[in-house]
Specification:
Elements: E1 6-12, H1 15-27, E2 35-39, H2 45-59, E3 65-69, H3 75-80, E4 88-92, H4 96-107, H5 117-126, H6 131-135
Amino acid sequence: MKDAFDVLMITHSSLCKGYEGALKLILDIDDDDFWTLSFENAESLEDFSEKIKTMIDGVYKDRNLVVLLDLPGGSPANVSLPFINSSRKFIAGINLPFVLELMTMKKNGISWEELNIEEICENASRSMVFYNKLLDGGNV
């Protein structure tokens, strides 16, 4: 049997809750499909780091985990990176198309071994559209 994976999103403020709401609306995900942690205003990095440690080394200790981060080089990413290991994949700079593709794969039973994060990253980066240029035939 191939291994499943879990998903944890760690962001500034309530951004992760917005993604969670969108996923519930679009994909009808369950509360157990997607977990979130927020770095809140006035929260110390030490307290935030402890929350991350509790979640990653506690709840997800012996499980395959995809950690989604909002901003490369931001506090959530910087505080999370020490927890990288072979059973954890960390991705920063995510967008909704990335999260939708990942969660669709999870809902469809794609295994940890089959999960191709690089391909999802490429697909998500290609999903951005500058409509002014597109609709004006390339003349902006």
